[in-house]
Amino acid sequence: MKKNTLGSLIWLRMMRFTHESNNLSNEFLKQFDLTTAQFDVLLQISIFEPITQSELAKKVTVTQGGISRMLTRLEQEQLIVRHQDWKTKFISLTPKGNEKLNNAFEAQLAFQSSFFDETLTKEEQKTLYKLISRVQKNSEQRSK
Amino acid sequence: MKKNTLGSLIWLRMMRFTHESNNLSNEFLKQFDLTTAQFDVLLQISIFEPITQSELAKKVTVTQGGISRMLTRLEQEQLIVRHQDWKTKFISLTPKGNEKLNNAFEAQLAFQSSFFDETLTKEEQKTLYKLISRVQKNSEQRSK
DNA sequence: AATTATCACTTTACTACTCAAATGATAATA
DNA sequence: TATTATCATTTGAGTAGTAAAGTGATAATT
Which residues belong to any copy of the HTH marR-type domain (chains A, B) (predicted)? Predict the structure, then answer.
């Protein structure tokens, strides 16, 4: 019989949770005709616009190639614009993109929160946030 | 300016962490010629063998179609066997699969643990495990 | 002025997943 | 015995990601 470490048990739970909740979120966002990844991208753009593609790619942990395709799709649906300045493309939301994000925003945040609100007290959520933040910052460093 | 909820901040950190650490893990496991998903599948088989495909699919949160393809690849590399009994296929590790898993097991668990060992005390890890377990069990219920 | 370098972005080839329709082995029914 | 039903698994079509090679606009060098 193999012996687990505490860390490996945490890792497994987190992987399962993010996988499951990501699937549920994709299902939930269908009413807005968005995927979880698209929502994430639109939100980051709304916070940091105008933002370059490579900066955006880093924020949403996707490769350059990946963000290029995603933005092509979002541009086709007229949710964003790319304004080229020298060799850099600056991304902004269109009014249509802004409206779509605003429509989905509250519902999606309530949806995300529900996973924690249903199981943890406010104090426990604060603790969880502190711990996971430390862990995530470390893995972000290691990714470079 | 949009207002975040505590839950949405936790959600984002978790998504980022699992994405980043999954990428790092795939890189790490190249030395064993495995992906993170394959390691997970082999480990579940070793614990529950003989196990049917549909049970295995549930354990690793992948669809029936997905597990079918994964197992086809693992079978081609002779790491697993599928023994058909009536309409069900029971999956087991081959000696080769067992050996590959044993080779990778300790290293991979140490790798997974390192994300937490580098940032959290043992006590903090226990707390994190308790909290995330409650959250994950809830999302597992909701997935059904 | 022509060539070369730089660098953000795009594209190609590949992998791996999803959903849903098809397959195939057996059981139940007519 | 032929037909139909059942149900785990497979397959086809589509989507989304990766790594790495290609593109194109500008800057630097000769």
Answer: 1-137
- The pLDDT of residue A1 is 65
| Domain residue ranges of chain A, discontinuous segments joined by + | 6-110
Q: What dotted CATH number matches A6-110?
A: 1.10.10.10
CB atoms within 10 A of CB A65: 9
Of B112, B143, B138, which is closest to residue B29 (Cα–Cα)? Answer: B112
Asked whether B81 and B92 are in contact (CB, 8 A), the reply is yes
Question: Which of A6, A19, A113 is closest, CB to CB, to B7?
Answer: A113
How many CB atoms within 10 Å of residue A95? 9
Closest nt by CA–C1' to A26: C18
Average pLDDT over residues A28-38: 92
pLDDT range class, residue B2, cuts 50, 70, 90: confident
Contact A125, B6 (CB under 8 A): yes
Instruction: Calculate helix-pair angle for B95-117, B36-48, nearest 10 degrees.
Output: 120
A20 alpha-carbon distance from chain centroid: 15
User: Are the beta carbons of A106 and B1 closer than 8 angstroms?
Assistant: no
A126 touches chain B (CB under 8 A): yes
Residue nearest to nucleotide D17 (CA to C1'): A66
Residue B83, pLDDT above cutoff 90: no
Architecture, CATH, for domain B6-142: Orthogonal Bundle (1.10)
List the one residue out of B112, B89, B140 whose CA is nearest residue B40: B112
Output the six-digit token pair for A99.
């409206």
Within chain B, residue ranges assigned H as helices are: 6-29, 36-48, 53-59, 64-76, 95-117, 122-142
Distance B67 CA to C27 C1' (A): 27
* Integer Cα distance of B50 and B138 in angstroms: 28
